[in-house]
UniProtKB/TrEMBL annotation:
Record organism: Streptomyces bathyalis
Membrane-spanning residues: 6-32, 39-60
InterPro entries assigned to the protein according to its UniProt record, in alphabetical order: Bact_Sigma-Reg, PPM-type-like_dom_sf, PPM-type_phosphatase-like_dom
Name assigned to this protein: Serine/threonine-protein phosphatase
Recorded GO MF terms: phosphatase activity
Signal sequence region: none
Length: 353
């Protein structure tokens, strides 16, 4: 790509020498600096522009049929386009630097708010992923968190309604409230109630319509201390968690339907968590609807239970890596929504191979 503008000028010179006056390279003389602008530095673009202006001026001097007025008009036009290309190149360089800076800041914010969890926590193996639908959108309203507490290892995966800074602020509120409540509340349903209260408190302080009309779907999980083969789930309007064991998959549907967090005025949440067996070797997958609502070119949804059936993964990291490959293939690398993923499994029994 780098030699192309120079080649264009040389082709324009050749056309002028061989075919003028029936065909000239005027358009190529003007186009060369514009082609250089996105790929060359500002100085490089200026040099291409000078080369192009010099070449067109020389061709007009050598063209016996041209007039002085025509020479001046064509050379001036090429010079104006070359100057415009320099300005465009300069703006592109500045925008690129600003985008790079914004990307770095957003990535740092993501790592601060959604840090990579430890791979082992309280006798369990844990993995998490966050994938933005847009390459430059490093953080959004999808969230995850995991914490070892006096009551066991507790996890949350959630999805804040909306986008933009209000969604990001609500996500930060949710994660902060979860970390505090997970340490203090003995019951998982009480943790969810604390999150509900935190969202309402923030809405009152913000007096924002986005907050007033906002809500967050969330799935909370608990692996109780001293009961490693037990799993507790509170689902607040979120896609159901998925269990994987021995090549079989099963959604954990809530025993009682509940509204998302932030909508308590329309109904109460569940009073207690659902409890299901979590045997050795079983893996739990929590995810946001960016996964389950990912579509292919025919509009068909991605089905994680079917994609993961009849397969075995040594650990949560391998599970999430394989899942991301599958959904990328399903969408053709054109996912329309962000997704947060978290997987956990009990570590092997002592002495197991």
């Amino acid at each position: 790509m780098y030699p192309l503008p120079i080649v264009m000028v040389l082709i324009a010179v050749s056309l002028d020498l061989v075919t003028a006056p029936t065909l000239t390279g005027s358009a190529l003389f003007c186009a060369a600096p514009l082609v250089a602008a996105p790929f060359f530095t500002t100085i490089g673009t200026a040099l291409v522009g000078m080369f192009s202006v010099g070449a067109v001026a020389l061709m007009r001097v050598l063209d016996e049929m041209s007039t002085g007025e025509m020479d001046l008009a064509e050379t001036s036009s090429t010079a104006v386009v070359a100057l415009l290309a320099v300005v465009i190149s300069r703006l592109l360089r500045r925008r690129g630097a600003a985008a790079s800076s914004a990307w770095t800041i957003a990535e740092a914010a993501q790592l601060a708010v959604l840090p990579v969890p430890p791979s082992r926590l309280g006798g369990f193996q844990v993995a998490a992923r966050y994938r933005a639908a847009q390459v430059d959108a490093r953080i959004g309203g999808d969230l995850y968190a995991v914490q070892e507490t006096p009551y066991g290892v507790r996890l949350i995966v959630g999805d804040v309604r909306g986008a933009g800074m209000d969604a990001v602020e609500a996500m930060v509120v949710m994660i902060g409230a979860f970390r505090e409540a997970a340490e203090q509340e003995a019951d998982l349903a009480a943790v969810a109630a604390r999150l509900e209260h935190a969202l309402h408190r923030e809405a009152q302080q913000k007096h924002s319509r986005e907050y007033d009309e906002g809500f967050t779907t969330a799935a909370l999980a608990e692996l109780p201390t001293g009961r490693p083969e037990t799993l507790r789930i509170v689902n607040r309007g979120h896609p159901p968690p998925l269990l994987l064991a021995d090549g079989r998959t099963r959604f954990i549907d809530p025993s009682e339907a509940a509204l998302p967090l932030g909508m308590s005025e329309l109904g109460d949440g569940p009073e207690r968590a659902d409890e299901v067996p979590f045997p050795w070797g079983t893996q739990l997958l929590l995810y946001t609807d960016g996964l389950s609502e990912a579509r292919d070119s025919d509009g068909e949804f991605f089905e994680p239970d079917k994609a993961l059936a009849e397969r075995a993964f040594d650990d949560p990291e391998m599970l999430l890596d394989a899942l991301l490959v599958d959904v990328q293939a399903h969408t053709g690398d054109a996912a329309a929504d962000d997704m947060a993923l978290m997987a956990v499994q009990v570590q092997r029994r002592p002495g197991a191979h």
